[in-house]
Structures are given as structure tokens and as C-alpha cells.
């Protein structure tokens, strides 16, 4: 980041404003889709995101960024991307000169999110960044400032917000369908395989909490629509397990919200979980799996009856919904529903969770 000087930044902003205005005008003129560049051709990008562009109405894949030439060759051939739209990390900043790229999607290890999001904004591009937004509150704030300074959108890859069962759960929970919410439990975890960047704090910024526990936290926040007042967290990590030399395994954390709702949450790298339960005065909403890629299941108990709720398969997957949402926000000049501020809000709580487990006490968030 330090390598970028002021002249460089201003030149990028100027070029980017012209480029993106042109892209939006083309799109509004009819039929044109906004162009995405994918940065980091790893598992999530290549298996979940790139195959979903075919479902999109307003988004198309136009460019690739990778440090591995063989991956660029392979995926450029598969997705019909011209060689001129393939970049290495070293020549990434040249994207500013490419008017086909409107949005840059960062799918790199967590500690690289801030640098590449900021470089993309300074190149005049809108940014979609994977969760966790970054590895600290300070980095999130720098990303928001860079996007604002460049007059560009910044959205975080919280795909569940575009998934029908989660959208319904939010509506039902906040609307009091099972009475006012009293308690939320949210559990997310998996058994982490050894020897990967997720277990190296320098690249991940933390363990299960940054990676998978963030789903429990984010769900507690979107199901209540509130920000927690306090957090109390307890860590359980077997430090003799070679996977957990630098990052945590399990965290149990409790959030207390202004309305009085308590959320008991779990984050784990040594056991499988994917669920949340919203318990109200008149019944409950169960989701398991709750935030998976597919196969969501919802059960509702109300008026003394417990019944599954089955929704029709949506025309567009949550992945395509997420991609198109940012394109639509760019075209209509609207804020994404999961803008940078949403990623920042999660990181604020995550920092408090780490503080609470380190210090063995409840941490207040309303005094920050
Ligand atoms: P991955 O290991 O499969 O891919 C990471 C990519 O980054 C690889 O292509 C790798 O070559 C590249 N890379 C560049 N520099 C690197 C470095 N110094 N060390 C390691 N890799 C480097 O990981 P992934 O599962 O695709 O995760 C990428 C991001 O996507 C993470 O931030 C993760 O949290 C997020 N993710 C989100 C979801 C979701 O459902 N929203 C799911 C999986 C991953």
C-alpha cells in the first residue's frame, strides 16, 4: 500500500471515474453487463463464483488475476477471457487502463483483502470483497475510506443475504412471527484440514472465528437487525494439535443486544456445525443447514404446530444474486445491502470477542 503515491492515486481515480461511467452508460443503454475481474483463482472463486456468471442478468466475467500462469491459461480458455484481460499480482494496477473491468472481486486469503481492495478502488474500480472483510477494524476503515475517496462502491461477499431461506428467516424473526425473539443460537464449524493458509495467522488473521464463526455472528446481527452491546467469549484450543500453533480452534461467545435478545454462538475448526435457531415467545424458527451453499432446511413451530417450510428453487442462486446486486447498485447508484460498513461491524465484534477471551471478561461494545 505504501508504494502508492498521491499522483498515482489521483490518476487512478480520474481514469476510473471515466471508465466506470462509460460502463454504467453502456449497461443502461441496454443489454450490456458490468464486467467483473476475479482476483485469486482458488477453490471458492473457481468452484462457486465463476460458474455462476451464466445465471447473471447484469454481470459477466471479463478478467482474471492470479500469480499462477497455468491457472490463468486454464481458466482463460474455459471462460473465453482474452490474454489482454489476464493479470498477475505484479501488474494488477494496470486494470485501471481496462475499461471492460467495472468491478473487482477479491477472493484472496484474508490478510490480502485490504491491500487489493484499496488498490482496486484506487484504480477506479468498484469492489466486491470476500468475508471476513479484512483482519482488523483499522483495515476495514481504510478500505471504506479508499472506496469513498474514489467514488466507488464496496460490498462484502455475505452471500446468505441473497439466499431465500435466510431472507425469509430475517423477515419472520424481525417481524415477530414466533413472537418477539428471546434467544438465538448460531453454530458454525468444520474440521479444518492441516497445512493451509487458514491455519497461518499471518495470512488468515485468526482461526475459526475469522473464517466460519463469522457466519454465527453475522446471522445473530441480521436476524435481530441490531448491534450487540456486550460480548463474552471463551476459547477452547488444543495447542498440542499442530493445526492450532498460531490460530484458535473453538470459541463459544454470547452477544447481548439492545432489545434484550441473547445470542449464544459457536465457532469451531474441530467439529461440523451449520445451524441457527430463533426462539420467540410463541415458538421458534430452526434452520439447519442454515448458511450452506445449497440444501437449506427450515422448520417453524407456531400455534402448537411444528412444520417444515419449503420454498421453491429460486431462478438465481445466492452467488449470482450477490454478483448482480452489486452491479445493480452500481447502475442505480445505490448502497449495497452488505456494504463495507457491514464487514466493519463484524470485525468490531470479532476484535471484542478476541479481547474478551484473552482477558476473561465481558467486553462492552457500546463504549467503543
Ligand atoms: P483458496 O486457498 O482455495 O484460494 C486462495 C487463492 O489465493 C489461491 O488461488 C491462492 O493461489 C491465492 N493466493 C495468493 N497469494 C497467496 C498466498 N500468499 N498464500 C496463499 N494463497 C495465496 O481459499 P478459498 O477457500 O478460495 O478462500 C479465499 C477467500 O474466500 C477467503 O477470504 C475466504 O474466507 C473466502 N471464502 C468465502 C466463502 C463464502 O462462502 N463466502 C467460501 C469459501 C471461501
Automatic annotation (TrEMBL):
Domain of life from the UniProt record? Bacteria
Q: Tell me the InterPro entries matching this sequence.
A: Gfo/Idh/MocA-like_OxRdtase_C, Gfo/Idh/MocA-like_OxRdtase_N, Gfo/Idh/MocA_oxidrdct_glycsds, Glc-Fru_OxRdtase_bac, NAD(P)-bd_dom_sf, TAT_signal
Name all Gfo/Idh/MocA-like oxidoreductase N-terminal domain ranges. Answer: 35-158
| Residues of the Gfo/Idh/MocA-like oxidoreductase C-terminal domain | 192-365
> Which residue ranges traverse the bilayer?
none
Keyword Nucleotide-binding assigned: no
Identify the keywords attached in UniProt to this record, alphabetized: Oxidoreductase
The protein, known as? Gfo/Idh/MocA family oxidoreductase
Q: Which organism is it from?
A: Sphingomonas qilianensis
